[in-house]
Amino acid sequence: MPRGGAITFGDLDGKLDMLLVACRKCDRVGKYRVDRLIVRYGPDTKPVDWKDAITADCPKRTNDSVALLPRPCAIVPTD
To answer: Are 18 and 40 in contact (CB under 8 A)?
Structure first.
């Protein structure tokens, strides 16, 4: 059960094998095994907090031009 309304990787354990995320701004898509996410980041990590780690190498995120990219890298969980 989510604590404080925020889902954690531990909450997903046993419910999902894979977490698929996609960016609304570009064509980047990724699949991540929930059990490995728990080992690497811990069961109390929220996917929203993990976003910075998986978007670190995104060219849209690292672009310095705020005028061109007012909302860089918009990943979301998907089906």
So the answer is: no
